[in-house]
Amino acid sequence: MVVFKWFKRRKPSLYLDPGSAFPAPSNAPAAPSGNGTISGRGKANRTDQLLAELAAIGANPGFLSPSGNQRTREIGAKLNRRGGRRTMLSAHRAITSQLGREAARELEFAWDGIGSWAG
Question: What are phi and psi of 41, to 5 degrees?
């Protein structure tokens, strides 16, 4: 299983785990202290699954391949619905750290036009 480490935000928020770039739902239990990874349930867990799937697409067929592009766009749209551009940028940073700048650039092109994303 792929575990993503999230980047710290510049401004702390009452609704964020210190190591998470994704807002926690207002009814979510307090995040456990640890190494800054998301390991909780619900929204964060679903986001982790989407990011793991993105990493698999980027590592094998590629984000712009015919089979990978459609699913990449679907995942981008889901991330956009969950947290808008901020969530998509966090996912992009995670892909950049996992797969490198070339794969991240492919992801930018694949997500072009989703929400306010401009590849």
Answer: -100, 180
Q: CA 56 → CA 2, 27, 31, 113, distances in Å? A: 10, 31, 27, 22
Each residue's pLDDT tens digit, 70-106: 999 999 999 999 989 999 999 999 999 999 999 999 9
Classified as helix, coil or strand, 114 is coil
The pTM for the full model equals 0.63
For residue 80, give the nearest of 43, 45, 46, 114 by alpha carbon.
114
CA dist 20 → 32, 47, 53, 88, 114 (Å)? 12, 11, 19, 13, 23
